[in-house]
TrEMBL record:
HTH cro/C1-type domain ranges (all copies): 13-69
Protein name per the record: Transcriptional regulator BldD
Domain of life assignment: Bacteria
Coiled-coil positions: none
Record organism: Streptomyces olivaceiscleroticus
């Protein structure tokens, strides 16, 4: 197995595990020791080759078809999730109202709905970014660049909108 393929396979394994809200130790606990955290971690990093049999068993443990774990296939969208879109609310407060007013109101609405008032950061979904793009009359990628320039979004957000542009 090539190193690149092993890393891609590992990314898929990690994506499935994190989608299920499991830590590496959580996998070990849930499997009652059948899957050791150190072994699963080494599969995910691509440091250790996984046999077809073990991959099938791991897919069964996660409750997903084996093909969901194989690189180059995304039938159910199980590829590594895009980076999270996290608004820096502290920096947003320093962006002039005439620029950031709609975003500030939108963020306040999400905070109210979630009861999340930490005031530091706020995670938003891809759909939220698309809605904001409509409000700002821009494409999601152009809006993302603007938010990055304001310091409100991390530059990793670019990857989140690569394939999402309208």
């Amino acid at each position: 197995m090539s190193s690149e393929y092993a890393k891609q396979l590992g990314a898929k394994l990690r994506a499935i595990r994190t989608q299920q809200g499991l830590s590496l130790h959580g996998v070990e606990e849930k499997s009652q020791g059948r899957w050791k955290a150190v072994v699963v971690g080494s599969y995910e990093r691509g440091d250790r080759a996984v046999t077809v049999q073990r991959l099938a068993e791991l897919a069964d443990f996660y409750g997903v078809p084996v093909q969901e774990l194989l690189p180059g296939t995304t039938p159910g969208g199980a590829a590594e999730p895009p980076p999270k879109l996290v608004l820096d609310l502290e920096r947003l407060a320093h962006v002039p109202q005439e620029k950031a007013g709609p975003l500030q109101r939108y963020a306040a609405t999400i905070q109210s709905q979630r009861g999340d008032y930490n005031g530091k950061v706020l995670s938003i979904r891809q759909d939220d970014l698309r809605t904001l793009a409509v409000i700002y009359d821009q494409s999601p990628s152009v809006l993302t660049e603007q938010l990055i320039s304001w310091g409100v979004l991390d530059a990793d957000a670019r990857r989140a909108v690569q394939h999402e542009d309208i």
